[in-house]
Amino acid sequence: MASSSFSSYNHGAWSDLPDGLLYSILTLLPSIHDLLAFSSVCRSWRSLASSVISPCPTSFFPPLLLHFLFIPHRRRFVPSDLLLVDPSLPLPVTPLNRSPLEAQSILNLHFLSSSHGHLLFFSNYHRNQVLIVDFITGHQVVSPVCPLDSDLPFCLANLTAPLLSVSSSLVLLTHKSLFVWQVGDAGWIHHSLDIEIQFASEMTVVGSRIYAMDKTNKLFTINMLPELSVTRLRVSWSGNEDRFYVPSHRLVHCDGELLSVCFLADKGQECTRNLKLKVFRLKFSNKKSKWVKIESLGNRALFVNADRRVTGFGCKNPERWGGKSNCVYYSGVTYKGSWSVWSLGKAVGDSEILNWLKSKFYNTDENTRLDQIWAYPNILSEEKSTDQI
Length: 389
Fold this sequence. Notes:
This protein is mainly beta. It is built from 6 helices and 24 strands.
């Protein structure tokens, strides 16, 4: 009798469990992989997970590390899988950590960025179409043909909102043009820039503002309303008594703020000696904005990519999943599925500084493929087929 009752319940009533009980279970899930399993039970569980987790996933889980697994084949190494490594789970990698994407095909695509749980590439079928790929489900959306200028390697891309949001747009930025595709529209809006952005290397969306940074760390804002425009943001440095800094800042989106991660040497020290990890927060002003030094991250950790095209994340309460607060998790550029953890304000080894400086993605015009990056999955949105978009 008990077995029969359980069988009936198992087949038809999972969706009838009270939300209070499900919420208690949901907030105790230790990893994104557990969240995947939870949200796949039924539509009501998925909806609950979306309403609880989606507004601030960084409060619950760390991002996943995406990297390729290479295997020997005919005297050379070829990619076999795109792996998804969860910092909250022990290694080695298990089959649950594999993306359904075909590794060889993805590796051959011109990589643009990662945004809202999707990887952005130029399509192989048409150079001026953007392929938007969910790395968890494999679902793909292809944009209309964009009237891009010929200088494609300098192009930056980002989604302004989750793909299925009514306000979602795909933004492409080159050194002299801005293109916007409202997801679902038949074509692109083009705006010629009044100022050129030479060697743009980063673009990120923070709230209602879109920021871009070039390789000399000049900061720009992209305005969508009342009309498309790009302006240079004059920024001063505040609270910085350090004399030297190492170039190649990394932008991080954290709690609705824009942060910049860099290395600085103490005043009086040589530029290449005793370098310390420092973080600055952008204090926005209509008159003159400032980069203000942050002395401590508190109960937060930052996840920073070697690839400057991919914005970093701030994660709250990392001890919840076994991480460390007041630290930076740096993806590096290796294929080992490992990362570095640096404490804010502490000296960092010379070899790791060299890794930061010589990151091949510091020259994004010369490197167009996906390497090792941190990314949050878009696991809580309903799928649509390409023809629906």
